[in-house]
Structures are given as structure tokens and as C-alpha cells.
Amino acid sequence: MKLKNVLIVVKDIEKSKQFYHDLFGLDVLLDNDGNVILTEGLVLQDEKIWRKFLGEDIISKCNSCELYFEEQDIEAFVEKLEKIYPGVQYVNRLMMHSWGQKVVRFYDLDGNLIEVGTPI
Predict the structure, then answer these.
(1) Per-residue model confidence as pLDDT tens digits over 41-86
(2) What is the 3-state secondary structure (H, E, C) of the chain?
(3) Cβ-contact 108, 11 below 8 angstroms
(4) Is the pTM of this model over 0.90?
(5) I want to staple 30 with a disulfide (CB 3.0 to 4.6 A). Which of 37, 60, 81, 92 is the partner?
(6) What's the CA gap between 51 and 115, in Å, rounded?
């Protein structure tokens, strides 16, 4: 058995597709009426579909997990982030951990936590 995909819930599929393409270069592999598979295994699902499956409200910014990306030129990434999405909400701005890794954490358009770090 292997892990196939990671699914996150979004309010606006089109805006989220653009967000993940703009910042991470992810492209659409399959777009199926509220379910979108992007390259690298990320799946976007429309909040209405997810709510129907669960029968519960969606909790934004629950901080129980994050999407983790690595970027060699993290300073350039942060510049791009601030230029394209100036209203992004940070958890922490660019910082360096004690082990020497630089990271930035922020929320996507729907409150999903993202971390971008330099390769370890």
C-alpha cells in the first residue's frame, strides 16, 4: 500500500488552482466537478462536497497539519509570495531554526497551513 494523495478543502476551486500554480508551479492533472488533482499529489475539493460527506462544518485554521514544500531560494520565494499575495496571513515570517533550516509558514486562501523550508 502507498499514500496516493493529500486532499485539502477549499471554498473556491478556481482561486485555489491559481494560488497553488502561482506559488508552487502545481498544474491540474484532473478537474472533475469540485475535485481537482494537481501535480505532486495535492487534491483540492470543494467545501460543499466535503461538508456533505462529513455532515459537519469545516474548521478553517485548525492547525492540526500542514503542507510542506522545499525551496532552495527561499528569499526569492518570499518575495514572490508577498508580491502576488500581499494579504497572506503569516504564522511566522522567514526565520531560521536552530539546526540551520530557513522556513516561512502561512495560510493559503482557505486557512490551510503551509510551510516552505530550505532543503535539509
Answers:
(1) 999 999 999 999 999 888 889 999 999 999 999 999 999 999 999 9
(2) CCCCCEEEEECCHHHHHHHHHHHHCCCEEEECCCEEEEHHHEEEEEHHHHHHHHCCCCCCCCCCCCEEEECCCHHHHHHHHHHHCCCCCEEEEEEECCCCCEEEEEECCCCCEEEEECCC
(3) no
(4) yes
(5) 37
(6) 26
Residues 6+ apart with CB under 8 A from 76: none
Going by C-alpha positions, the residue among 69, 79, 64, 63 that lies closest to residue 101 is: 69
Q: Are 47 and 108 in contact (CB under 8 A)?
A: no
